[in-house]
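User: These chains co-purify. Model them together.
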Amino acid sequence: MKSPSPITRALLVAGTAAALVPGLALPAGAEVPEGWSHPADVNGLHALLVLGGIPLALFILIGLAVYLPSVMRGEGIAPTQAEDHWLGGSAKSAGELQSAQAGRTEADETGGGSGSW
Amino acid sequence: MVAVAPGEHLSRGEHTELDRAIRAAEQASRAEFSVFIGHAGEEPRAHAELLHGSLTAPARSILILVDPSAHALEVVTGSDVRRRVTDQQVGLAILAMSSDFADGNLVGGLKRGLSMLAEAARPERTLHAH
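Assistant: Joint model of the two components:
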């Protein structure tokens, strides 16, 4: 038997999918069976409160649970900056560093270079 | 992989490793080496020059500054040492270090840079003709 062309095969797959999806979803649109309850329509505002309000409240609650203990201990909540390492350097303060720079002469002219990655 | 404590750029082992590399570079070149890893502010070059100026013997010193968060790298050579280490040689060391840093190899890059700069700063052997 001759195998169908790729176009025919694609059309067949697309057609089957297009027919199956509404076909399978059809029972969802059927009438409510007899004996089942008939609840009132859901209010839009109520739905918004349930679907948006509850996740928002949970978000705030979890955020408070995470940050409140460190705030109570007087610690900052900003991410901490990694500590500086100076190997083979001096332990001078910022003021001492500035005065060391001010005392430099032209004979102390430096070289070197800059880069980034 | 070496575990690094949160808020630290280097583990204790890496710190020791770099200390050794600095000592080896100093012995090989007779220049003073200093490595700063940390926040360099808005102007890394100015900060590197500031740190270099505060060293015990700035003229004989080479400072390597790395700001991992800003991806900035600066090398400052003192007035004496720059007679032996040209800015072009520094540029090559910077290129090698940047390449390792881009691969996430901070310590390896610094060791390579130290070794290249030490090699460049090595005093030339002169032959005395009679």
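Residues 44-72 of chain A form the longest helix (29 residues).
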